[in-house]
Amino acid sequence: MRTSPSNKAEKKMVLEKIASHVRQVADFPSKGILFYDITTLVKNTEAFQKSVDMMAEMLSGEEINCFVAPESRGFIFASALSYKLGKELILVRKQGKLPSDTASVSYDLEYGKDTLEIHKDSINNESRAVIVDDILATGGTARGAGQLVEELGGSVAGHLFFIELVGLKGAEVLSPHPVRSLLKMPG
Prior knowledge:
Oligomer: single chain
Strand content: 25-35%
Largest sheet: 7 strands, mixed
Radius of gyration: 16 Å
């Protein structure tokens, strides 16, 4: 059984090891963007398991019943958290990817515009959701997902990210909802 770091020094070492499994790719998907590639993290069983365990601990004591995951890399962490914590998993997809009746929101992201959709029957007034994604950059995707939850009558209990690019101040965009992130990078 995996155990969590018991003190600050041990936690810092574990986080540094986890961060070492994230590949940084310059000028992807467009010039001037530094892309944080998590495929190298999820390929490493120990680093991925430790990441999910520590993210789950960040939600300890939270009264939530679902995870809302934006396409596509949010699916990775939210699926693992959903399984680990026994909570519903609700997928938010790009426009035209869901087969049933949807609600949609358009939003700005750091290198363009996009539209997200959610099945209208996936959220109701009993839903207390945490929005889970891999990276918090400018906050557009997470804010859009949260807007969809609230539009359908649910509430956003907070946001959880694997990496937060603190220099881009995405957490400010998500206020007043709490924002948690496992790793903080300059951005």
